[in-house]
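hiii, so i know i said id send this last week but things got crazy w the move. better late than never?? heres the sequnce for the chain we talked about at the cafe, plus the structure i predicted for it. fair warning i was half asleep when i ran it
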Amino acid sequence: AWNLVPYVAVWYDQSGGGRNATQPTLGLQPKYNHGGGFVDFKPSTRMVLPYIFTTGNGPYTYVTQHRNINNPQGAIFEVGHRNTNQAVIFQRYNSQYDSCWVSSDLFFGSYAPNSILSETYSGTQRSTYVNSQLISAPAYSTRNGQGTSGILGGSGEVNNIEIMNGELYYLGTSSIVLSDTDRKLLEGVGKP
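okay and structure toks below
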């Protein structure tokens, strides 16, 4: 009997922009679960993620769906410089979610398996969504994002305390604020 395990060495950027997530080290490669349609980042696997947001105070949109995040502080991704407060980290934070710019946490929603999470930033406002429902939209006037690579399936936190230890269906990003219609299409709730 065959016991084939598909490890993920490259998660290809579908936009054609070449911002592929990679992991050349076999022991750190997540597994692909074909039957469930997700990438399994358990127990402590992760991928190198190129910088996926605009630098400076530029706008962005991200949309992602996770299956489970078993670590109560598990990060889905981190990009940017944490040590200079220029990182973007998206994670579960105990019973809710945290969109963290390191210097400015935005806690929102209630953690639940299989949630679809989105955030847009216009340059003046951060809007967070859970399952396509607007949760919060506070004003933020500055973000100092820096264009460096990051981690998919965790963060750069010392001692791996923010490793995801969970499963991810997808991550979509844009360097613009998508319209509600386009964002909902990425979330899978809109009709083409």
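btw The longest strand covers residues 60-69. thought thatd interest u
miss u guys!!
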